[in-house]
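Chapter summary example.
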Amino acid sequence: MKSMYILPLDDPQATLEVVGGKGSSLAKLVNAGFPVPDGYHITTNAYRRFVSQNELQPFISQVLETVDPTNPSTLEEASTAIAEKFCAATIPGEVTRALMKAYSRLPGINPPVAVRSSATAEDLPEASFAGQQETYLNIRDDLQLLDAVRKCWASLWTARAIGYRSELGIQPDKVALAVIVQVLVDAESAGIMFTANPLNGQRNQILISASWGLGEAVVGGRVTADTLTVDKSSGQVISRETGEKLIQTVSTQNGTADVSIPAPLQKAPVLSDERASELARLGQQIEETYQMHMDIEWALAGDQFAILQARPITALPAPEPPAPTEWKLPDGAYSAMRNNIVELMTDPLTPFFRTFGLHAVNTSMHNLLSSFFGNTKIMPDDLIISVNEYAYYNGSVRFGPMMKIIFSTRQILKRMFTGAVERWTEEGRPEYLRTVQDWRTREWKELPARHLLKAARQLTMAAIDAYGSLVSGVIPAAWISEALFTFIYKFLKRQDDPAAPTYLMGFDSLPIRAEKELFDLSQWAKENIGLSAYLSDTPSLEIVSHLENGFPGTAFDRDVWHEWQNRFEVYLNNFGHTIYNLDFSNPVPADDPTPIIEALKLFISGKGTNPYTRQAKAVKRREVAVASMRSRLKGRRLALFNKYLERAQRYAPLREDGIADVGLSYPLLRQMLRELGRRFVSAGMIEIADDIFWLQEDEVEEAIKRLDMGETLGDLTDRIPQRKATWNAAKRVSPPMMLPQIKVLGFDLMKLKSGRDRKRSEDILKGVAASPGSVTAPACVMHGPGDFNKMKTGDVLVASLTTPAWTPLFTRASAVVTDIGGPLSHGSIVAREYGIPAVLGTKAATTSIIDGQLITVDGSAGIVHLAVDRENED
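The structure predicted for these 874 residues follows.
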């Protein structure tokens, strides 16, 4: 069987140059005695003979000259042209004979095999190339085998492989491709194993993904696999997340297919603890053989594990430090709370925002409060402090000034309501907008770095100044006026009258206007069949890439595409500034419009609710309710109703508009900071532009000083991974709502307010009854915009907090549950507009609810019932 074109799997000549990265790794595994399925290598000599006889290399070089690596459409066009040429080419006779002879020597008649690509520039410690080439499963005869080999050879030139090699500077004439043919493992289950935890960087943990059937559904990300974390030293499973596995890849008569998993197995664990421990030991042995952390594909048939592939882990984060357990206040602070502006900083703060950003926040807020109270000595200098990377409102006010505030409450409230609307509409917002528009018109990219940082500071302070004009007027006015109306209404209403929020629904706030414009855009797109099909069928991330890089070359003309681009750009200019988090390291929709595209798709499919219809119904309910009350009430009762209703209706829409506009400067601010980051990258200080957010203010200022003087910058790349690891460790905990923690016999009394009630017959989360109704549905726990693509229509949206930027998700949600918030927060208002239940302010939703868990949200009672598997409880 041994020839220049074929080698046994364990042959000593099976080197990287001859059998590619995957092939040389399998040879090493076989020779080390690991359970690798039987098979053979088709060497790179066969590929080169095929390319040479068909004179393909000159054609490849010519096609690649037209490729722009930053333009996906040129990569796709080149790949298609090369693939067509490969498919039309003839495999040389001597290669064909060698392939068929090797196949005939495998056990059985026409045995099913897996045919895998193995390039000479893949599975290396510095570049994995994972998923760049193709694999074909359940190949059953000579003709299928030859066809699969030809397709594997062509897959060396997929668009993603061309682009990836270009990014790494690998010359196209230096690569070749081998093919591995192995007996197909008829797997009952399969998956991936990492011998170090790629999520938290812990080298003493093994992470296993497992699902039913062949491993392709797991590798391709088409199934929510089980995830098990195993301790290396003990072999014990230390955590387990059992996914809802809806499909599996199975062998068929003509290859493979994805089929539905039987209902009893969908939520059943794939591997027992014993099996997981056995697999982990195998992974540990492979790691010891390679002397490096490994990414391993495995399969289980009967009682036997098989190793299908092993490659080095190329991107392992720094090990995370332990999650914080002690919450000590900084010197000089005796009290701190997670409230007020801190509610817009739910996550740990990134280093640049914690230093540079908070400096701007504190300066702006101190100026505001000092002028509002008429005394610069009342509030501490640092109103916002950080503890374990989390922001806290510093409540360390001295006794004397606090008494002055208490005795001046009436005057303070009077100032708050006097000109509350004008403080935002005529002062705060116009001044904020002028600052943003002024910088938009300047050639700021040409500025020296120090001026660019100064501009970023000005835009940050402008955002906080604007927030200050809201929080000192419209927001408290809206909160107080709605609370007063609700209180008065209780004494005026009859039993069958609608709830108080009915009188405040249907107004044209910015989030509602954004949804209507997105709906209009979807209806326009539906008028063009080609565009509508493209938007419906193309992954959102790919659509975003096409929007940035050019025409996708699909079944509609360029004029339609340019019109779509222009309309979407207008939409982002109008509404892309809404923020998820005050920390400017987080993208805004203008940076990453993927969630907006998802909502657009829903409207195109006809599954989304028409916002015009929904708003019209809300307006009608409101008008009917108002008319009914006014026709029934008389005298002083009617005057009270009209007085408090007018105030509540005046402030409620302005609150939503104002919160949505807090981020007006953020798209430009982030562009400026990333421009600084690009300059640091060019100077060798950091690896990517976004790493600037992981630097501290003093580091950035020192770098800017050196940059503007033409001096060499220091390399800070080694600091970034550890700071990200510290951030991730902090993200794993829920910060106390108040500091210091009050403990009795070691128990934190604040946990009594965590919202969790374990005395009931089932687990319950208690919160604020923010929007009535009851729904039972799977929970989608989201920690930020990076999780938005997880959400399916009908899921319960579970988050720490929602801001106007989250509004597109409400179209898909069946209910809303949050850690933070109340009856007057954004989540409750939008939930009522959409007519879905909401329970807010549970304090523990994102830590108590498991992603995918079936829960019942009772928005009328303010209770969330959690389904519990009693067998797995401690």
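To summarize the output: The longest helix spans residues 449-492.
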